[in-house]
């Protein structure tokens, strides 16, 4: 199973710890982490995977591996900038969004547009005028997020 973890390249310590724990749980349960491969949430999740003895794949926006997280197992340079966000979300069987800014929002949109389930921890809630959409499945803890991701991936 492949789980895409998305989130900002800048984050506070609380979000970084959440991402680390998610990455470690993914590894301990035998799944492969896919992420954007840079700093922040991506780096913390990859570090968690490494500490959990798992495999992580970073799909990088750059033509080189210079800015890649040192914790990645595999770093894939693309040279396509933010367009790589579509690849990150498509590569996973399910997506976990942690924190994030507009890049994360775009990834949530890409994932939902192709029918991927998105589990969210401290991330975006989507609304249309006058109504909250139930598109991002909320989780309160890293454990709950990973449990939901595994359940959803089995359903798809």
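^ Assign residues to that structure.
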């Amino acid at each position: 199973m492949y789980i895409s973890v998305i989130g900002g390249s800048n984050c506070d310590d609380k979000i970084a710890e959440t991402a680390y724990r998610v990455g470690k749980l993914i590894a301990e349960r035998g799944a492969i982490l896919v992420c954007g491969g840079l700093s922040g949430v991506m780096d913390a999740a990859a570090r968690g995977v490494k500490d959990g003895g798992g495999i992580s794949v970073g799909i990088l926006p750059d033509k080189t591996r210079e800015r890649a997280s040192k914790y990645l197992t595999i770093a894939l340079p693309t040279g396509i900038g933010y367009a790589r966000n579509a690849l990150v979300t498509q590569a996973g069987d399910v997506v976990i969004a942690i924190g994030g800014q507009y890049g994360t929002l775009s990834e949530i949109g890409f994932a939902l547009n192709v029918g991927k389930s998105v589990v969210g921890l401290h991330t975006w809630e989507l609304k249309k005028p006058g109504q909250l959409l139930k598109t991002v499945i909320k989780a309160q803890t890293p454990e709950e997020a990973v449990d939901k991701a595994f359940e959803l991936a089995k359903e798809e």
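Residues 2-148 form a domain with the Rossmann fold fold (CATH 3.40.50.450).
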